[in-house]
């Protein structure tokens, strides 16, 4: 008698989930620079091109005052800001990464 194993949705034949996981900033560094802080965050996984573009566009629409420079690559995000804006900027990036539109892009 042959049995067939039903594969749950969103899994591969071995049982591993095939659903994308939202990227997050898993490692953060902040460096003193003239007149501010340079912050660099590494993503928990590389962003694909669509996610990177979505994050960049979302950031452009939701700019935080005094963030002088902002750059997103597949593996990291970096920004230059006064010391008092570092935590607020990290929170903003975390919210953007968790946003449904960006999560759907993955």
Explain this structure to me?
The chain contains 3 helices and 4 strands; from the N terminus they run ββαββαα. With 106 residues, the chain is of the alpha+beta class. It has one domain: 2-Layer Sandwich (Gyrase A, domain 2). Strand 3 and strand 4 (76-81) form a beta hairpin. The protein is elongated and about 70 Å long. The chain starts with 24 loop residues before the first strand and ends with a helix. 20% of the residues are buried.
User: How are helices and strands ordered from N to C?
Assistant: EEHEEHH
Shape: elongated
Rg, Cα atoms, Å: 18 Å
Tally of individual domains:
1
Strand arrangement within the widest β-sheet reads 1-2-4-3
Count the strands? 4
- Please state the average pLDDT score: 82
Helix content: 25-40%
> Ranges with pLDDT <50 over ≥5 residues?
none
Major sheet summary line: 4 strands, antiparallel
N- to C-terminal distance: 41 Å
Q: What labels describe this entry?
A:
alpha+beta, 106 residues, 3 helices, Gyrase A, domain 2, 25% strand
Architecture blueprint of SSEs:
Blueprint: E1 25-33, E2 36-43, H1 49-61, E3 69-72, E4 76-81, H2 86-98, H3 100-105
Antiparallel strand pairs: 1-2, 2-4, 3-4
């Amino acid at each position: 008698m042959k049995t067939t194993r039903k594969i749950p949705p969103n899994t591969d034949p071995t049982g591993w989930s095939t659903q994308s996981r939202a990227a997050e900033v898993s490692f953060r560094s902040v460096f003193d620079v003239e007149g501010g802080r340079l912050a660099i965050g590494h993503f928990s996984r590389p962003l694909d091109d669509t996610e990177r573009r979505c994050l960049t566009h979302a950031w452009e629409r939701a700019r935080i005052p005094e963030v002088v420079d902002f750059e997103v690559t597949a593996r990291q995000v970096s920004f230059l800001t006064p010391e008092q804006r570092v935590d607020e900027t990290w929170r903003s990036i975390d919210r953007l990464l968790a946003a449904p539109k960006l999560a759907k892009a993955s």
